[in-house]
């Protein structure tokens, strides 16, 4: 049988058809995807980083600001540095940067290699910060002394790559085959660089059909083809930077027994003689806080009613003395005071003088008029004061409002690290400026005070401040509201004098009474031994540091029975 011979023309025709089919497929793909862009943008042109600067990328996110490069050292914009190193403080008034640890205060000047530690001069290889164009830049080397992080610096163009977040989880994979890193998510976008097989890239969840956004180890962000990456073997990475060194040395004084503090309002030196009557009923008190000190001016001077004799007599009955320092003087520019290192230092030195000369056991800071605009200066004052108190093994206690959104600038989390005790003033639920009448301290208010404070401060540092006073409210027919503070006896006597009936309000944990005075409605939420006992049931003495009362002399003697029962 003869083999059938296929004519050469048929073979050629089949080949032509096959070629045409391939061309049709290729043309179709080109029509669909377009001709790949072969334009390569140099990274120098892409980043457009000025001479002496570097693109700054922190935790794979580009900063809006560049870093500076000086003597092969990277300097970060101050606002970036402050987010990384929270205890750094730039003093605009004195043009210095201050950094505090638990026991040391470092002061640096712009573009100077010499700096001071607790007043003693030292020298470093490069300045810790520099000024340029009216802006402050902080050395990466300085930040790394205190804050563990990963830093890589690249040239041509300059790039500073920082990883410092302990809480973020990063996804990455290897490049399977050589591919281009493009400016955008298609082959029509320009090429930034070539990715080689074996390179590792971080994955950023921003994809198109064929491309995924990635971040390279040398700090370039762009888009790579998904099929060129080993997507099936994605790994995760979470850095474990050592943060313990930032809080090293922040020791605290802790009493074995609960603190029971009574504030003793002293309005003159002569008033110190009333210490005996103030404490006459106060069974169970182990700390007294006389209101001795008030900031006198913006340079750091104090007005004082301090008395050595008072301290000696209180010590003789085994009670500690933590005098109060307030910010109630409305003539003082507290922003000027607290934002100046010179003024803060003078104020602290004045406080420490009395601590040492009068043999004080501690200090109670009661700054209630702080504004958000200088809250950073206030916290810096507390940092610096805590160093001096810790060095002398003296108690630093700080009074605070119940933490709410509007006063978050008081930064209780940082205060809780610095201080031995945080006293939350669980009163003034309704106060002289309130728009409605109400309790000074209801049970829900006390609960909220403890809960909100404990969200930022360890329970064993919390002192719960409670009231020995109440308020009488007058509601007029035309809607006006007047109020006056009264002691426990004063409130009860007023109810009796007006033959009003007091009823126990279980929800508030207080007796309530009201009556008519002419056309006015009189209302009062009483404080006495039963209301004190109800509040103390909310305070777990085995968890919190203790309790405090404003103020000595306003209470009934029986209120201390409630305290003694709580202490059992």
In short:
Keywords: Hydrolase, Membrane, Transmembrane, Transmembrane helix. 26% of the residues lie in helices and 30% in strands.
Task: Give a description of the structure.
GO terms for molecular function: chitin binding; hydrolase activity. The chain crosses the membrane at residues 6-28. This protein has three domains: 46-163, Copper amine oxidase-like, N-terminal domain (Copper Amine Oxidase, Chain A, domain 1); 169-238, SH3 type barrels; 259-467 and 528-567, Glycosidases (TIM Barrel). It is 26% helix and 30% strand. It contains 14 helices and 36 strands. The strands form six sheets. An eleven-stranded mixed beta sheet has the order 24-23-26-27-28-29-30-36-21-22-25, covered by helices on one side. The longest helix is centred in the N-terminal third of the chain and has 26 residues, at 8-33. The protein is elongated and about 130 Å long.
What is the CATH fold-level name of the largest domain? TIM Barrel
User: Main beta sheet, described?
Assistant: 11 strands, mixed
Which word captures the global form?
A: elongated
Rounded to the nearest angstrom, the radius of gyration is 35 Å
- Biggest β-sheet: strands ordered side by side in the sheet: 24-23-26-27-28-29-30-36-21-22-25
**Which structural class should the secondary elements be placed in?**
alpha/beta
Give the % helix.
25-40%
Question: Architecture of the largest domain in CATH?
Answer: Alpha-Beta Barrel
Number of helices: 14
Query: How far is the N terminus from the C terminus?
Result: 119 Å
Name the average pLDDT.
95
**Poorly predicted parts:** none
CATH class of the largest domain: Alpha Beta
Our count of domains comes out at 3
Total beta-strand segments: 36
Oligomer: single chain
**Proportion of beta-strand residues:** 25-35%
CATH superfamily of the largest domain: Glycosidases
């Amino acid at each position: 049988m003869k083999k059938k011979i296929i004519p050469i023309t048929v073979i050629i025709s089949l080949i032509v058809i096959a070629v045409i089919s391939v061309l049709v497929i290729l043309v179709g793909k080109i029509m669909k995807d377009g001709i790949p862009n072969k334009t390569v943008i140099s990274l120098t042109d892409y980043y457009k980083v000025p001479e002496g600067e570097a693109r700054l990328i922190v935790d794979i996110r580009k900063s809006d600001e560049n870093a500076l490069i000086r003597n092969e050292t990277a300097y970060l914009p101050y606002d970036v540095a402050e987010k990384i190193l929270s205890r750094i403080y730039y003093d605009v008034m004195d043009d210095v940067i201050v950094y505090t640890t638990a026991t040391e205060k470092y002061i640096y000047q712009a573009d100077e290699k010499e700096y001071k530690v607790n007043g003693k001069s030292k020298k470093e290889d490069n300045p810790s910060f520099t000024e340029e164009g009216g802006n402050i830049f902080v050395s990466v080397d300085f930040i790394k002394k205190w804050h563990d992080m990963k830093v890589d610096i690249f040239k041509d163009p300059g790039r500073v790559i920082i990883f410092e977040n302990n809480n973020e989880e990063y996804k990455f994979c290897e490049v399977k085959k050589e591919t281009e890193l493009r400016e955008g998510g298609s082959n029509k976008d320009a090429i930034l660089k070539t990715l080689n097989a074996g390179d590792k890239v971080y994955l950023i969840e921003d994809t198109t059909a064929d491309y995924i956004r990635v971040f390279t180890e040398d700090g370039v962000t762009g888009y790579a083809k998904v099929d060129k990456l080993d997507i099936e073997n994605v790994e995760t990475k979470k850095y474990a930077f050592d943060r313990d060194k930032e809080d090293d040395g922040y020791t605290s004084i802790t009493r074995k027994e609960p603190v029971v503090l009574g504030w003793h309002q002293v309005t003159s030196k002569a008033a110190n003689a009333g210490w005996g009557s103030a404490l006459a009923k106060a069974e169970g008190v182990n700390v007294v806080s006389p209101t001795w000190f008030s900031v006198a001016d913006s340079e750091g001077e104090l007005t004082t009613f301090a008395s050595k004799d008072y301290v000696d007599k209180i010590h003789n009955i085994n009670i500690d003395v933590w005098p109060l320092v307030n910010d109630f003087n409305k003539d003082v520019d507290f922003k000027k005071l607290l934002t100046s290192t010179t003024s803060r230092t003078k104020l602290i030195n004045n406080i420490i003088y009395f601590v040492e000369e009068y043999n004080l056991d501690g200090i109670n800071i009661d700054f209630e008029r702080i504004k958000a605009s200088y809250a950073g200066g206030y916290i810096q004052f507390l940092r610096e004061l805590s160093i001096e108190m810790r060095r002398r093994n003296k108690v630093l206690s700080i009074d605070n409002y119940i933490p709410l959104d509007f006063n978050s600038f008081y930064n209780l989390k940082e205060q809780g690290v610095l201080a031995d005790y945080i006293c939350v003033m669980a009163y003034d639920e309704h106060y002289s400026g309130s728009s409605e009448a109400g309790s000074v301290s209801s049970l829900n208010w006390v609960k909220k005070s403890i809960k909100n404070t404990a969200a930022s401060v360890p329970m064993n540092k919390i002192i719960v401040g409670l009231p020995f006073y109440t308020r009488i409210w007058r509601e007029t027919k035309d809607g006006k509201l007047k109020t006056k503070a009264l002691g426990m006896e004063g409130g009860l006597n007023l109810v009796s004098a007006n033959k009003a009936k007091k009823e126990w309000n279980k929800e508030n944990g207080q007796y309530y009474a009201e009556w008519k005075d002419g056309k006015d409605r009189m209302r009062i939420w009483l404080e006495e031994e039963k209301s004190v006992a109800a509040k103390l049931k909310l305070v777990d003495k085995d968890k919190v540091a203790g309790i405090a009362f404003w103020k000595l002399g306003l209470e009934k003697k029986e209120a201390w029975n409630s305290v003694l029962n709580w202490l059992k």
